[in-house]
UniProtKB/TrEMBL annotation:
<protein>
    <recommendedName>
        <fullName>CHK kinase-like domain-containing protein</fullName>
    </recommendedName>
</protein>
<dbReference type="Pfam" id="PF02958">
    <property type="entry name" value="EcKL"/>
</dbReference>
<dbReference type="InterPro" id="IPR015897">
    <property type="entry name" value="CHK_kinase-like"/>
</dbReference>
<dbReference type="InterPro" id="IPR004119">
    <property type="entry name" value="EcKL"/>
</dbReference>
<feature type="domain" description="CHK kinase-like">
    <location>
        <begin position="123"/>
        <end position="320"/>
    </location>
</feature>
<dbReference type="InterPro" id="IPR011009">
    <property type="entry name" value="Kinase-like_dom_sf"/>
</dbReference>
Amino acid sequence: MSVELNEVQKCLIDKIAKENGFNNYELKTNKGSEKGDNFLGILTTVTIKNGKDKLDLILKSAHQNEAFRKAAPLRSAYLREIYLYENVFNEFKKYQENHNVADIFDNYAKIYGSSIVEESECLILENLKTQGYQLWNKQQPMNSEHISAVLQGYAKFHGTSMAMKHKNPELYENITEDISSSIWENDEFVANKDKFDSFFRTVMNIGYKSIEDDPALTEFLKILEPQFSDMFSDGLKDPEYKTSIVHGDCWCNNLLFKYEGSDNKRPLDVKYIDWQISHVNSPAYDFCYFFLAHSPKEILDDYKTYLKLYYDTFSKHLRSLNCDPDEIFPFSRFEKHINRFMIFGLYMCFTILKIMLCDSEEAPDFGEMAEDGDMLQSMNFKFKNFDIFKERIRNLVVFVKDNNFISK
């Protein structure tokens, strides 16, 4: 089904077409995602075609729903993502190339254009799916090959950020000045204590309900509860953790994999998308969020192997940028950050695993909920895979408990 574009989008696409040699062209548009795949935006596939020549793009545009725009920091999210693509990534690439790094971090889509016009904020990116990249099945935990590939990519990304911060602090401060804090820290929602407390309680109730048949785990979660709250009120703002730029939105629908062959077991490449809540934080933020949300029990039980894999890749990348990892971010400090952020990752899983395990028709419609004034209850939806969700959450709580990931 063809998707109607607004005038801002039409003009932007026409400009991109002409810049890429398409003076006379046919334009095809189509819906680019299913319900539950993308929450802060609308994805539209765009094909610019002239004979055998074509350019496949993705238009990512902000919702125009007035209630939704008031309930969530949509404009801030789009301005931030545009900034990452058009500024930070360019600086990162130049910095790595200037050091002759052989294996650079460039695991993101090419951007062709953007708009910051109020209510028409959008990005136009290359369509990675037409190049053979695929989403992971969000209802399945990842295997070791996929977990490893994602963590190694994050390690190079964080390593580039820390090297620039250490070797060229003026440039680093310049590119991070406007993205040092999360968009949620600056949003009215977080500033409104009653609203935040209500949402926090909703998320905690999801966690309690998933382990309600286990008194010991329920008591442990009660011990963790004030630490969850502290993470958002103070913990994520602690200068100790302001060490690098992080992706921030580390679930599988923001990852695209490319394979050799048809078994889809060993990814050759991974691309990271949706940089809307990227900000300055600890590498442990990305590691713990991603690792807990996607690891089956056998990988959780072997988590130290993946800590080492991440840190070895991180260290190698820092050395390629003429930096000493033991000076900048020693493994002992990384472990302390991991110990702090594992409970943050657990909290995030109370909601993100519901989204991952629900079917498309079961996913919440945030636009409709905003219209009804009920955004805070967006996570209170029923879904058929609740028993699987309970088992996944139980494994995570046991993992955190058994490994004593609790603030001392």
